[in-house]
């Protein structure tokens, strides 16, 4: 299952990267999710304790994209499947890897949205305080988007691709057995039956709701500030998304009106003699401008929007992750209080408290590390997409500039001249 | 006077960074170079606009705008500095009166149009209010343009009333009314019926009328589209201003990305603000189109006058032919054309020889007069056609020249807008790079 060596081998990090020392922690954590008791003691955790290390610069340099990647996943080739009961889309998921624990270096499977959703749930269960990348929404509420329209499928396919991309470079999640099963198993059905089912998950939800009512007593400052950031990030990223949608809408309306310009100039050209060539030149130029504008509008939708959308969904994930961490802390505090007040069953209670303390520690460490990872992704993704947008806009204006300059040249006017007055002959 | 090759290299198009004020100046210079004797003597400007209130003809309080017309000797480029100009104030209705006078007095000339009375073809952000300072400013420019057009016309520039308009603040009104031009105004009904009934219009005028109608339609269409495009473009630019606000918010919660986002946000604000100037300049282009839109009405006017004159010729000829017919009948005693006299004489008996001779004499008189009238009308019509056609040729060259320059300056404006766009987004790119 896990990539690392035996549980006893704590001091040797498997991957030669600082952040991945935390991986050690998770080789044990999977057993927690399965309900079996934790075999270790709190002291073993201090070896991997990285709280004091405050070097955001370094961790940023360990950008997921710059690591040695050994797992490459693509999602493509959507095809609709028709059965007696339903119609749905299957996507091809192609994996290329050099990892030893994969049976072959190249695997291809076909998956539907439901199965992606299953994968994400499993990952959430196994790693409650990790920031799992979001999936595209199940339903599209706004607009009359056909479930099987080309645009919708294309957008969803790209989002699913991004989802697996993010997983493939995640220091912890990329090694999840669930991911491996998803990528390789021809038939996922047996895997879907494992692990805590829906009911137990619901039980967890009830418990955590009850406890979140109670509140967390000694929440560290750092997590409060993460909460704060998350709230503000949520509203900000939604604003950015909204503004971008608005920009696209305005640009499309502009394009619609612009398209009427050229034909009118052409119409005029037909009436004229001496002026005809000049008017035709303007009409031609406006035609070309229209084409360029079309391309520019598309760019925004294809590059910036998906990224913003993904991070809008992430904002929800962040909230949930912080809440889960809070719940784990609440669990611990309840038991700890019980330990202090109850006189009977001290030994059992002590064991429980210890295990909960471990769990809390693991959760905190995992969250911190993944927060850094997520922040670095955020920065990289946002920067890339904003840069791309700005670059595209620069290109757009440069192309339009060239179109008008070429018009001027056709009128035997030198656009580079800067003299104010020329004597007419 | 053919368009010389120099017009391709004319001032305004060489400089891609030219502002609308400079373009206006260049147009004025072009007109001066063409050189009427008036413009050689006098430099004319409409330099200011002011609001006034006063009682109008129905004794009600109203607010109106007056425009300052300044005239100074043309060769004032001496080192002594500019001499004090002659100044007087006129309101829009004064200009209208002048124009009507010119229309009536020179019906074979395509009289330059006035700037629009009310703002038309506005895109929504621009005010349609006549008292709006931007509108007043554009009108000021338009009125100056009108005066320069008249002053550079070979015929109109020599008109005395025009000269008085420029120089005599109080006496002008009386002078223009004294010309009695109002009596010469053709009734609308007359000219309308002429349009329908003329049988042999000059084909050139028919073609010209059609052209002017089509030009009117296409320029109207163009102005409408332009207004809508301007509206939309305004929306695109302004919406980017929201990025400024949102990036600012975002920069407050990000440590590393903060500076980059914040400064990119400023560039977005700059981008959003830049559209105001861009569209302001484009308004100038729209005004140039509007001038020619209104010119089509002046062309139509000339065509209508021709139709009227042609109609009068045809009527005179028809009348003459009828009288001659009657004479023939009277002489030969045959009745070919129905006439009441003929009928009554058939019913009530022949008239006496004396009566016949009286009638004949009267007819001869009428025929003579009719022939004189026909000659006059023909002459009038021919002269009109000759003069009109000369002016039409002049106008065509002017139109081609002006509109070509306008289109070129439109392209230059677009280039300037694109350069700004490149600048802003390059700056934003730099900021994103530093994130």
UniProtKB/TrEMBL annotation, chain B:
Q: Which GO terms describe its biological process?
A: positive regulation of autophagosome assembly; protein transport
GO terms, molecular function: phosphatidylinositol-3-phosphate binding
Note the Pfam families from the entry: PX
Could you tell me which SMART domains the record lists for this protein? PX
Print the keywords alphabetically: Protein transport, Transport
Q: Which GO terms describe its cellular component?
A: early endosome membrane; plasma membrane; SNARE complex
Is Transport a UniProt keyword of this protein?
Answer: yes
Q: Which SUPFAM superfamilies match?
A: PX domain
Q: Where is the PX domain?
A: 45-172
Q: Which PANTHER family match?
A: SORTING NEXIN-4 (PTHR46596)
* Similarity comment: family membership: Belongs to the sorting nexin family.
Task: Write the protein's name.
Answer: PX domain-containing protein
Q: What's the source species for this entry?
A: Periophthalmus magnuspinnatus
């Amino acid at each position: 299952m896990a990539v690392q060596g035996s549980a006893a081998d704590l001091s040797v990090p498997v991957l030669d990267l600082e952040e991945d020392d935390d991986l050690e922690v998770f080789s044990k954590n999977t057993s927690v999710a399965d309900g079996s008791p934790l075999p270790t003691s709190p002291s073993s955790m201090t070896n991997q304790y990285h709280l004091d290390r405050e070097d955001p610069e370094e961790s940023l340099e360990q950008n997921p994209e710059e690591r040695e990647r050994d797992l490459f996943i693509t999602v493509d080739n959507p095809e609709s499947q028709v059965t007696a009961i339903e119609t749905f889309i299957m996507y091809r998921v192609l994996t290329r890897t050099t990892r030893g624990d994969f049976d072959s270096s190249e695997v291809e499977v076909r998956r539907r949205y439901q199965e992606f959703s299953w994968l994400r749930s499993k990952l959430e269960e196994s790693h409650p305080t990790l920031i799992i990348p979001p999936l595209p929404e199940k339903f599209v509420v706004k607009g009359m988007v056909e479930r099987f329209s080309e645009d919708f499928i294309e957008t969803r396919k790209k989002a699913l691709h991004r989802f697996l991309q993010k997983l493939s470079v995640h220091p912890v999640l990329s090694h999840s057995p669930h991911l491996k099963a998803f990528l390789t198993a021809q038939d996922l059905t047996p895997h879907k039956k494992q692990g805590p089912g829906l009911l137990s998950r619901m039980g967890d939800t009830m418990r955590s709701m009850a406890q979140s009512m109670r509140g967390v007593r000694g929440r560290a400052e750092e997590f409060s500030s993460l909460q704060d950031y998350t709230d503000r990030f949520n509203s900000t990223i939604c604003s950015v998304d909204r503004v971008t949608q608005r920009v696209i809408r305005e640009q499309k309306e502009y394009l619609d009106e612009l398209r009427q310009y050229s034909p009118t100039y052409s119409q005029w050209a037909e009436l004229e003699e001496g002026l005809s060539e000049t008017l035709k030149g303007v009409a031609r130029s406006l035609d070309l401008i229209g084409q360029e504008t079309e391309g520019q509008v598309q760019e925004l939708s294809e590059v910036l929007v998906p990224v913003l959308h993904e991070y809008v969904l992430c904002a929800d994930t962040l909230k949930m992750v912080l809440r889960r961490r809070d719940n784990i802390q609440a669990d611990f505090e309840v038991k700890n209080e019980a330990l202090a007040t109850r006189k009977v069953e001290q030994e059992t209670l002590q064991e429980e408290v210890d295990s909960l303390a471990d769990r809390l520690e693991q959760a905190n460490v995992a969250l911190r590390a993944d927060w850094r990872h997520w922040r670095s992704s955020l920065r990289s993704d946002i920067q890339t997409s904003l840069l791309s947008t700005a670059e595209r806009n620069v290109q757009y204006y440069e192309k339009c500039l060239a179109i008008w300059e070429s018009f001027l040249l056709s009128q035997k006017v030198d656009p580079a001249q800067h003299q104010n007055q020329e004597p007419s002959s | 006077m053919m368009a010389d090759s120099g017009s391709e290299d004319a001032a305004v198009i060489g400089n891609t960074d030219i502002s609308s004020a400079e373009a206006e100046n260049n147009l004025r210079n072009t007109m001066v170079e063409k050189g009427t004797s008036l413009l050689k003597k006098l430099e004319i400007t409409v330099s200011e606009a002011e609001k006034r209130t006063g009682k109008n003809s129905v004794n009600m309080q109203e607010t109106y705008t007056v425009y300052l017309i300044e005239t100074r000797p043309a060769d004032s480029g001496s080192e002594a500095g500019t001499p004090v100009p002659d100044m007087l104030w006129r309101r829009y209705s004064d200009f209208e009166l002048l124009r009507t006078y010119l229309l009536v007095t020179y019906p074979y000339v395509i009289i330059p149009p006035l700037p629009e009375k009310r703002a038309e073809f506005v895109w929504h952000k621009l005010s349609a209010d006549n008292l709006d300072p931007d509108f007043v400013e554009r009108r000021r420019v338009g009125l100056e343009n009108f005066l320069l057009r008249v002053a550079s016309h070979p015929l109109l520039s020599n008109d005395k009333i025009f000269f008085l308009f420029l120089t005599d603040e109080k006496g002008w009104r009386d002078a223009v009314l004294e010309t009695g031009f109002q009596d010469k105004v053709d009734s609308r009904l007359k000219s309308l019926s002429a349009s329908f009934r003329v049988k042999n219009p000059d084909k050139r005028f028919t073609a010209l009328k059609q052209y002017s109608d089509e030009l009117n339609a296409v320029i109207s269409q163009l102005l409408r589209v332009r207004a809508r495009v301007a509206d939309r473009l305004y929306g695109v630019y302004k919406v980017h201003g929201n990025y400024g606000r949102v990036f600012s918010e975002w920069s407050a919660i990000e440590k590393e990305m903060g500076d980059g986002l914040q400064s990119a946000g400023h560039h977005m604000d700059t981008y959003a603000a830049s559209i105001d100037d861009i569209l302001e300049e484009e308004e100038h282009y729209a005004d140039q189109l509007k001038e020619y839109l209104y010119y089509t009405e002046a062309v139509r006017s000339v065509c209508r006058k021709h139709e009227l004159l042609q109609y009068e010729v045809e009527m005179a000829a028809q009348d003459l032919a009828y009288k001659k017919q009657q004479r023939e009948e009277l002489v030969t005693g045959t009745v070919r054309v129905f006439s009441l006299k003929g009928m009554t004489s058939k019913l009530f008996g022949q008239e006496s020889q004396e009566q016949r001779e009286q009638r004949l004499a009267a007819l001869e008189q009428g025929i003579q007069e009719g022939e004189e009238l026909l000659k006059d009308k023909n002459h009038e019509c021919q002269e009109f056609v000759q003069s009109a056609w000369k002016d039409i040729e002049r106008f065509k060259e002017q139109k081609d020249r002006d509109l070509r320059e306008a289109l070129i300056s439109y392209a230059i404006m677009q280039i300037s807008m694109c350069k700004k766009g490149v600048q802003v987004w390059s700056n934003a790119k730099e900021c994103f790079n530093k994130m």
